[in-house]
Hints:
By secondary structure, this protein is of the alpha/beta class. The chain is built from eleven helices and 20 strands. It folds into two domains: about 1-320, Rossmann fold (3-Layer(aba) Sandwich), CATH 3.40.50; about 330-415, GMP Synthetase, Chain A, domain 3 (2-Layer Sandwich), CATH 3.30.300. The strands form four sheets. It has a twelve-stranded mixed beta sheet with strand order 4-3-5-6-7-8-9-14-13-12-10-11, sandwiched between helices. A four-stranded mixed beta sheet has the order 19-18-17-20. Strand 8 and strand 9 form a beta hairpin. The protein is globular, with a radius of gyration of 22 Å.
Amino acid sequence: MSGVLNTLLAVPLAERFVRHNRSLAEWRHAQTCHARRLVKNALAGSDFYRSLWEESGVQPDPDIELDDLARLPVIDRATWRSVPLEKIMTTHPAEVPISHQTGGTSGNPFLMPYFSIDDIRLRATVLAVMRGRGVRWYERALWFLPPDTHSRGGHRLFGRVRMIDSDATTEARLDALREGTEQIVRGYPWPVWRAVVLARRRGVTLPPRRLFVTGGEPLPASVRRTIEQALGARVVNRYAATDYGQMAAECEKGSLHLCAGAHVRILTESGPAKPGQEGEVVATNFFSSARPLIQVRTGDYAAWSETRCSCGNEIPHLACVSGRTGDAILTPAGEVLRFVELERALTGMEENLLGFQFEQQARDRVLVRLCLGIGPGNVDDVRSRLEARLPGMRVSVELTDQIATEPNGKTRACRGMPPKSP
């Protein structure tokens, strides 16, 4: 019940957040206000951050400037999660925080606490992204969600929502898309992609939709194109996480502009990444007052765009989010290749492809799993393309009936070699 009430309270706030997402000056002002509130809260109530900053020789000003966040120490996600609750969590004299469970992409699911006011702000951020795409909060929607989210109660951001488990069979997802008339569809991209490919293979025409809102997984260009063509819908990709908040969302031109509720940096081994240079995302969730998340590595890799977005919005935007740590192939020459580059070897197979996965089995060996609709496809062509892109590596292709998903319903398009044990 509290979740539904918080969503209603978030509606008027979302209108203000829409303005924050359109103007660089308002965006920076909003982020500065958010940063000051969060840092003041951490200084007053979090033993962990007070000790961390003192040991690092950094004492942030409660009236911190936005650019000064970069001076604060960076910590990894595992360290942040391992800190005992009583050491990191701040308190509110009259409130028990609301807990939201993460999807478990980076390990075991994690409960992220939010005070009600921050929960409302977080919902308003998502509503603002949807409002900026012409979606009203009360519109009917079809959601493909992990089963555990159905019981949270507070995840509903639209008035009438029909929910289907994201780990349902492809047949069940196809039935849901064929039977419904909702104009808004939301879910992970890969399960929906498999359903629309199955529909196309059977000659089934799906009811047209207006918008497919997605996120949580890398979105290959081929997957996006197939969904857009089958549903007649515009795909809007979001970069968000339960613990990190809403970090970026696509504009009408397809650029991932940063949102006002989170501070995003991209770091390489030598420092801040330059435009076009891939690095690891480090984020601060401005609405994490209960358990402050400040300058924490995400485990995701991304790059800043090298060009200004043609939509006219001057807010910084990402060129791409290319995957997580370990979701890449490391060649014998030391080159790191992520699925965005590897999927090009599958060009021309989209009509016959129900799934794919790249897995590095040894330093010089890669396995490609293909789930094909009809016939063997151009397997030899895929192998030769990849061998040309991966010199010094042996490539084998395995045909399979389905690509296994993770426990949270997501699909890993690329599996790198696990790190060596110490």
